[in-house]
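INTERNAL TRANSFER SHEET
From: sequence group
To: structure group
Subject: Copper chaperone PCu(A)C

Please process the attached sequence and return the structure record in the designated field. Keep the field labels unchanged so the import script can parse them.
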Amino acid sequence: MFHTRTRLSHRLAGTALVLGVAVGAAGCGDSPTAADAATEKPSVSSLVLIDGWVKAADHGMTGAFGKLVNSSGADIHIVSATSPITKSMELHEMAHGDGGEMVMREKTDGFVVAAGGEYRLEPGGDHLMFMELTSPIQPGQDVPVALTAEDGSRVEVSVVARSYTGANENYQGGEHGDDGHGGH
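Return from structure group:
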């Protein structure tokens, strides 16, 4: 009987060791590592715009604002935006002009929304710029916007129009059929 118990206990110990190694190995393979996160493809569908709004305007240019939130494990690089109510859009920033004054200009490198992070679009800062409105934007109106990532993927968001009298910055590069004033 002692001999049978010894063999049984050795078998159980061996089985436990094999299971422990298998579970440990499986656990290592299933755990995300820094290398996994670095190679994860960004998914623009993981991007949302919270509290998105656009300044109501009758014509010309206007800006859209809100908080972009990235719930994915990889950075998302937004390189352009479009909307059916404007001929063109640009990603904009506020920067120092030649005379040291703050001016609004295109942010040619786009917006990077960090993995698990957020990116604020606000008056007096980075924003989405509607360059040539094709129809007025009235307070309360929902305005669709498509954001395009560096990889070509797109996400549709919506901004609601509000009356807003602040942030009338100068636009650096008045080639957009306007007097150089941003109007947003």
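Handover comment: The CA atoms of residues 131 and 177 lie 9 Å apart. The chain has two domains: 2-31, 44-171.
Transfer complete.
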